[in-house]
Design a protein that fits this description.
The chain has 284 residues and is an alpha/beta fold. It contains nine helices and ten strands.
């Protein structure tokens, strides 16, 4: 009796199959629309904590991201000669999303956003108003105040908040272009700690929901997307990985896989087994 062995495809055949599959509309991830912009990538990256600027840039490329957060209090925007990380990010390839990290009051956050618009011409802002130095949880009262002010001034506001459905609904009502509830504390890598609340936020949302903070590995990103999130924002999970470029690629694939799974109609969970092969028509 002879045993058939499968012959692995050569690299050209494998590449052709991959290219064919990625062009198939059935495998396409729909673009993400936020305010007046459309993005082909649903993965947003932070620019902090990388060991060097080269690793940062290569990670952005591996992730396929189109939007990058920039901590305004970490760079001097007025000094073009400063060798700051921001000067290594191509503004023609990435939308800069200035953030108000380090602000603890609405007034400070609004002032920082205004500074970004004055010096860099940026009217998009990742709004952070921190309420506690140890957990970095937001001060939602101050966050709501800052959102209202900045929206009235024409900013495109993407507020970082906790996983509170009521607060997320209020932020959207105030005109936030998206809401960005945390999956877990910033930089913790703990993954999605409260999927029930995230599901409620997503079901009630009138604007895109971007899961922000806590993602540690690719499976965390996939879970966020499978819950129905519109995108994921992360920094530490990639920047502090042993191989950030490889992790960036993993996160890209995870976000795409999670979105496809969420829009494929998963099977229902059952307590007992269901045979994969039918019992009718068996050969006796």
């Amino acid at each position: 009796m002879t045993t058939a062995t499968a012959t692995p495809p050569d690299s050209a055949t494998a590449q052709s199959a991959t290219q064919h599959s990625t062009k198939d509309p059935a495998f396409a991830v729909e673009p993400l629309r936020i305010a007046n912009r459309t993005f082909t990538s649903r993965l947003i990256l932070g620019s902090g904590k990388y060991t060097d600027n080269d690793a940062m840039v290569r990670s952005f490329e591996a992730a396929g991201t189109e939007m990058v957060t920039v901590a305004l209090r970490r760079v001097s925007l007025s000094d073009p000669d400063e060798n700051a990380y921001i000067h290594h990010i191509d503004p023609d390839k990435y939308l800069f999303l200035p953030n108000t990290a380090g602000c603890y009051t609405a007034d400070d956050a609004v002032r920082t956003a205004r500074l970004a618009r004055e010096l860099g011409g940026w009217n998009w802002v990742k709004l952070e108003v921190i309420g506690d130095k140890e957990t970095l949880f937001p001060d939602n009262g101050e966050l709501l105040k800052a959102t209202e002010t900045l929206v009235a001034e024409g900013f495109v506001v993407l507020p970082y908040t906790n996983d509170d459905p009521v607060v997320c609904k209020k932020l959207a009502e105030l005109g936030a272009a998206a809401v960005m509830p945390l999956g877990a504390p910033i930089g913790s890598g703990m993954g999605i700690r409260n999927p029930a609340n995230l599901r409620i936020i997503i079901e009630q949302a009138s604007v895109p929901v971007i899961v922000d903070a806590g993602v540690g590995t690719a499976s965390d990103a996939a879970v966020a997307m499978e819950l129905g999130a519109d995108g994921v924002l992360m920094n530490t999970g990639i920047a502090c990985a042993a191989d950030p470029v490889r992790m960036a690629r993993a996160m890209k694939l995870a976000v795409e896989a999670g979105w496809l799974a969420a829009h494929s109609g998963r099977i229902q969970k059952k307590l007992y087994a269901t045979a994969s092969s039918p019992e009718t028509g068996l050969i006796e």
